[in-house]
Amino acid sequence: MTSPEPHTPPTDTAGGPATAPAGDTGAGAVAPSSIANPIASSLDALAAWRAELDRQVAQLGRAFVEHELLDDADAALLAALREQLASDKLVLAFVAEFSRGKSELINAIFFADAGRRVLPATPGRTTMCPVELRHDGHLPPRLALLPIETRLRGLSLAELRTRDGHWQHVPLDPADPQSLVQALAAVTRRQRVSVEQATALGFWNAAQPEDNPPQADDGSVEVPAWRHAVINYPHPLLQHGLVVDWILETHAHADHITSAGLLRRRSGALAAAPFNCGVTPADLHLEQGVTLNIGGESLRVLDTPGHTAGSICLLWRDAVFTGDTLLIGGCGRCDFQGGDAGAMYDSISQRLFTLPDETRVYPGHDYRGNRQSTIGAEKRDNPRLAGKTRDQFIALMARLDLPKPAMIDVAVPANRNLGLPQGM
After folding, report:
1. Radius of gyration, alpha carbons of the chain
2. What is this structure's pTM?
3. How far, in Å, CA of 410 to CA of 256, rounded?
4. CB 131 within 8 A of CB 102
5. CB-hemisphere CA count at 13 Å for 180?
6. End-to-end CA separation in angstroms for the chain
7. How many CB atoms lie within 10 A of CB 99?
8. CA distance 418 to 421
9. Exposed (0-12), middle (13-18) or buried (19+): which is 356, by Cβ within 10 Å?
10. How does pLDDT run across 161-189, given as a tens digit for each residue?
């Protein structure tokens, strides 16, 4: 495994509305734009090294043949070496969460040169279907969209991948960030259907009314417009064969349907989710004290309930990924999904604020363009926490009176199944 340059873990790159209160909606861990070019440059260098080594191995093989020194065993060994050079993959571990984590990682790592958030990942404007990012040199840069109605045709996604006629295609211009933003906005599209249609599409279950999305005055239900989206994009990371090893979730959230299950299925990666999030299909359930060893790196799990009952943070070296628990100048809301302001205060004061003051803080998101903070700065300056007693914090959070997330009734049941349709 390789990871971003030392001491440069993922954080937020995007600004968003300056008036958005910190921690009141959504989340998503992303990487600073500065890591994109070093990673791409390193991969270019690795590819060049592999190509040169392959050339030298081939030259060695020809020399052996010319001097009649190559037997069958040596020939097989040289062939195996060249095959390994061609097929070896670079493995990275992405640390993210359910709410916009994947979208923000895509933005920061693959679209950093655009200088702006390209894939939608702001409150009320997030990807509403699984989005796959890949590179196929035989196809032009494009966004392929599979209508949600294809669920009614009895064809699997694997079958539909080979049937271009079922997809809608939008051309992409990698050199024009504004046109990319406009084209990729399509993944946010929703549509209203009848309860009968929602049932057929798998978004309504009369036997489980508590999980059904809200109905409008006319009885209609809002559902995603697309079943799946594929972005074919010529980025060096994709051209050189990026492999995802682990998908690590800090919590399940309420405004977005995750692609974690699909990403796991497509990449062979393992998905890990907090023990108390109710994500039963996860390969590993994370709880306090668990340490994940990924290559030469280690991530330690810190239980931090409060934003949701299952929220966790991840400690890496001298940095902590805080999801929606501790934000820069704020914290996550505590009024749904088992949230509890008292538990939030305890988690922050007893688990996070006991870390060394110089520990760097990388939150799930920040709408004001901040990239990182430190434990010391948040202890001193965070307006929701600095100088507050537990009772004062609970009272402050109770006064926020935040609206219910619009897609919570669709997103939460889906996210508890890693974003996959029930039964899969």
Report:
1. 23
2. 0.52
3. 8
4. yes
5. 21
6. 30
7. 33
8. 9
9. exposed
10. 889 899 999 999 998 989 999 999 898 89
